[in-house]
Structure formats: structure tokens, C-alpha cells
Amino acid sequence: MGDNIIIRVQSPDGMKKIPSTKRETAAAFLKKVAKEFGFNSNGFSVYLNRNKTGEILSQNKTLSLLKIKHGDMLFLFPSASSSSSGETMDTATPHTSSSLPSISSSSSSSSSSSLIPRSSSAPQVQEDEIDQYLAKQDGKIYRNRDPQLCRHGALGKCVHCVPLEPFDEDYLNHLDPPVKHMSFHAYLRKLTGGADKGKFAALENISCKIKSGCEGHPPWPEGICTKCQPSAITLNRQKYRHVDNIMFENHTIADRFLDFWRKTGSQRMGYLYGRYTEHTDIPLGIRAEVAAIYEPPQSATQNSLELLEDPKAAAVDEIAAKLGLCKVGWIFTDLLSEDTRIGTVHYTRNQDSFYLSAEECITAGYFQNQHSNPCRLSRDGSFGSKFVTVVATGGPDNQVHFEGYQVSNQCMALVRDECLLPCKDAPELGYAKESSPEQYVPDVFYKDKDKFGNDVTFLARPLPVEYLIIDITTTFPKDPQYTFTSTQRFPIENRDLLGETQDFHSLATYLSQCSSVSFLDIVSDFHLLLFLVTNEVMPLRDSIGLLLDAVKTSNEQLAQTWKKSEQWATIEQLCSTEGGQPSSSLGYEAMGGPAVPASSAAMWSCLHCTFMNQPGTEHLKPRSSRWLLKAEKDALVYIQIRLFSSSWSLESPLQYNHSSKL
């Protein structure tokens, strides 16, 4: 028994202990190592030293002759031709300024670092352009020479003028207004700014699920062990944020979104489309610029919102991508009118009530999980999210204010693993689920001060949601910017309740109002482009690429080239015959649309087919009925059956009382 020894072997995947004996040969020992780490016989090399010196060869010499004793540490490096692992172990070579080291987040705190050897096993991820740009920036805060405190020459530096790091808390606290959360890239620099340059750090996402593959016991709920059990979570206020500012390009974007609430009194929700840029007011900051708002199908009341299935969601994302935009967040209203004469609203969201309800935090976490942040420093390929939440609500001055938020990475993990629930009677409180036979839920805690000022740990049942919220400044620029330059307003999608529909009649009206501007300015409208791509009569999804490039680059010549295409000529023809009116009555021939001869003015065309009808005909009589009259509970609805499509649409304003259900 005295010959038994244990040898530690360090690899890029971690350390393992290999049982052996003093008389065991090096060849037999290397076979044990290969079996333990899953390598073939020639897929790795083992060295006595970390700097790859003193290689242990496969030979018949015993371990005692090689001076390998009990408890010694050996170092395993996969070979370049290894098919089972392409990882390489980091050496003590310091990182250059152009390479960003990585950080770690434990399950108990999203901002803590764990000593995990970083390897190249992380997937190759294409990061966002803004992340690639900021990773190359110096990020330091440079200060001028202080004439009162600095006693050195112009080329010297002292503690009063030396550049500060981007995560300097004293500098951030003295900004106007003070910054509570450092930027995400400044947070990376803080964790990787030590002597090791982040060599032993790695970004890891929190998991609240039982680890799979544990064979030492029956599966949950019959058994669980410390190897597969997720760690308890202690909620901490996140010290960094992925987005530091939200900016709407102009007031028109927000005003058009609020028009729905002004006209109906019902709340509204929309997706924010824009781009991420550098926010220069905060070191290494990121700004989300909003260029357009897309309103998906939804059912809304004065107190609730329900999202419906959106068949056009993929097409909208595709169009936005071709325009150089992406989905950067979502916005919803929570407005209650106070005085309609002067346009004031109630101030309902404040420190005495809540800023975001638990249900809204869960929704925000769901969206952030859907739009995770690509990160090459994470083993999962993503970490956190840049997806923002904007609330249009009443402010202290009883005017409409826009407030921006995100939820923390801990909240994202709780929502992703279905561990967080809202409280029915207290919107400001969440509730961590309890374990059940169907799901194991780790304990969730938060810290607060008791009446004596002592820090006390509480179980998150219930949970104040302010531990999960990160506030973001929302602004409008002094000089408005316009990605879409159209001065006229094409109807916004999914607003049939207001009588605003997207059809060729509204397109003809829109074009008639734009007869004196350039063609590029006419088509530079996000909602118009969506209609051209998603309409049922003549969708242009496969032929509108040139026009989208023209709008993206503001190239009038490209727009004129696309205007001469057959697709636009067909659109013009559909608009010219819309509503049985010739194009001259719409003023549309100024746009290049063909005018209808006066001799055919007596004939009128059907809105939904190719029939030409005699003058004086008031009712259509085609092969099948086109119009049906339906009366139900004092409701009068005209339902038009489109002969060219299987879909149904409502004709004329919908008239019904509140007690009727159609």
C-alpha cells in the first residue's frame, strides 16, 4: 500500500487526480491519463513544468525513476492535430492591449469572478459592431494638468492628472447627473485590469436548472446531489449595464406612437428598431438609437395589453436588417388622462408605488433572453442583453415622460428557467417559485437593512423587484435626426381600430400628398416599406432590395432606378384605379403614375377584381355574393369577401355598442 500515489494533471479543461503507483511505467500512466481525459494515444503531451519543459515520454521507465512523487502536478497540453480537443492552455504571457481578457459570473452574483482557466473552447461568435469597436478603444479618462496641484513640467504626470480608468467610481459619481452603473466594457476592464490581465477569468451565465448526466442517484425528485444541484442565488444590484442611453431620433417617432392612446384611451405596445452607437458621455458607453417603432398585432384596453401572433414578424426583421437596423427594445404606454383640456396625465409610477411591475420585469426578461448579447468571452457564446424597455408614463410634472430600463442578468436567468412569478395583488413584488416534483428551484435570497440598520438576508418570497431593475436615461436630441426622411405620414400597421388601414387606397392618398418631393423622400418611410413588402395583393419581398439600399444610403439615383421597374409600375396602376377614380383626381400623375383617359371616366372599376362596371350601377352582382349584411345585438357590420383571396376584411368603420360581441 505504501507504493500507491496520486498524481495531479492540469489541462485546459481543469485538473484531475490520477491514481498510480511508484513502480508503474510512464507508458501505463499515460494510458490512464488518455482514458481519464478522453484523448487518443498521441493526441496530447504531458510535461513536468507549465512552460512545456520536461516532457514525459511513453517509455518503460517507472515514475520513481522519473522523480515523480505523490501529489506532484503535471501539465497536459493537447496536440495541434488532436481530433478530440483543439484547446490550448494559456501561459504566463501577458495580454496585449488589443485583446480583451474575459471575466466570470458565479451563480450567486452576476458580477463576481471565478478562477477558471480560460481556454479556446468558447465558440467563435460574431459580436456586434459596437462591441468590436469599443474593445479596441483605450477607454481611459484623460485629465489636463492642474495649475494649482501639479508641480511638474508639461510632459510629466502625477496623481492629480494621470489618466483614470473607465470604471473609476469617484469620477462617475461626480458626473452631472451622477452615473450609478458603469458601462459593460468598463466592467470588463475592471475585472481584467489586475496583474494576471484576466488570465483566469471567464464569463459564465447563471443556471437555475439541475445539471444533466449525474448517474450517482435517481433523477429528481427521487434524488439530487451537490454535483448536479444548482447553487443558491443571492440577488445583488447589478453594477454595470449593457446599454447606457436610449435616444429617439426625433419627437415624431414618439408622437405617432402616442396618437393611438390619445385617440382611443387604450394602452399600446411596440418594438423599437434602430442601431447601437457609442455613448460618449460615459466611458466606453453604448447608446441605443431608435429610428422607428413597429406595432405588432395586439389586444389592448385601458388597463391591459395582450400580444397576438404576428405572421409578419420575420419579414419586419428582414426589412430592418437590410436597412441597417435591428430590434433594440420594446416600448409600452401606461397613461391615465388627468385633464383632457390641458393634456395632463396622472403621475402613477414613483418611489411610493413602483417603476416596473413584476409582470413587466418578467416580460422584459423574456425579451432579453430572446435577444441575448453575442459575446466571445462567454463559453455559451452570449452574455446578458442589449434589449431595452421603455415606458411612456406620467412624470412629476403630469406630462408624458419616457423612462428606460433593463433587468439584470440574474433576473434573465430566473425568467429563462421559469423560477420567477408575479404577485397578484402587489405589482411591485415578485415571488420565487418553490420546488415541486416537476421542477427543482434553488433558493433565492436578497439582502436588506432591518429597523436597526443591520444587513439581513431574506428569502425572496416575496421579492422587491427593484433588485432586478437597471434604469437607463432616455433622451431626445436637440437637433433631430431622421433615418426616414418622409414628411408625410403613411398609416401605421395594425391600427384598424382607429380606421387607419394599410391598403392601396391609403397608398394612393399618401402619394397624392407627396407630389412635390423627390421619390427617395416619398418611399423613405418605415411603415410604407413594410406595406410594400407584406401586402397581400402584390408583395415585393423579393424585388425591393434595391429600394431598401437606396433608403439606407440616401441614394436618389438608386431610388429612381427602382422606380422604373415593372413592380413599381404595377403599384402605380393599382393606385390609379383605387376607389374607381382616375389618377388625375388624386394628383398622382405628377408622381409618374398613368392617367386614365377621360373617355373611360363613365366606367368604374371594382376595388378587388378586374371587372369594369357600367355607370349608374350601385350594387355589384358577380358570380357569387360580394356583400353580406349581418346584424347582431344592435351591431351593423359590412363584411366584404375578397374574391382574389381567402381572407376576410371589414369594410367601413365598425359600428357596435359595448355590450355586443362580434
From TrEMBL:
Gene3D superfamilies linked to this entry: Cytidine Deaminase, domain 2, Phosphatidylinositol 3-kinase Catalytic Subunit, Chain A, domain 1
Superkingdom as given in the UniProt entry: Eukaryota
A Pfam cross-reference name: UN_NPL4
Domain MPN: 246-383
Compositional bias annotation for Low complexity: 97-121
Region Disordered, annotated ranges: 81-127
Residue stretches of biased makeup (Polar residues): 86-96
Family under the similarity heading: Belongs to the NPL4 family.
PANTHER family: NUCLEAR PROTEIN LOCALIZATION 4, NUCLEAR PROTEIN LOCALIZATION PROTEIN 4 HOMOLOG
Protein name (record): Nuclear protein localization protein 4
Organism field: Ameca splendens
Name of the encoding gene: NPLOC4
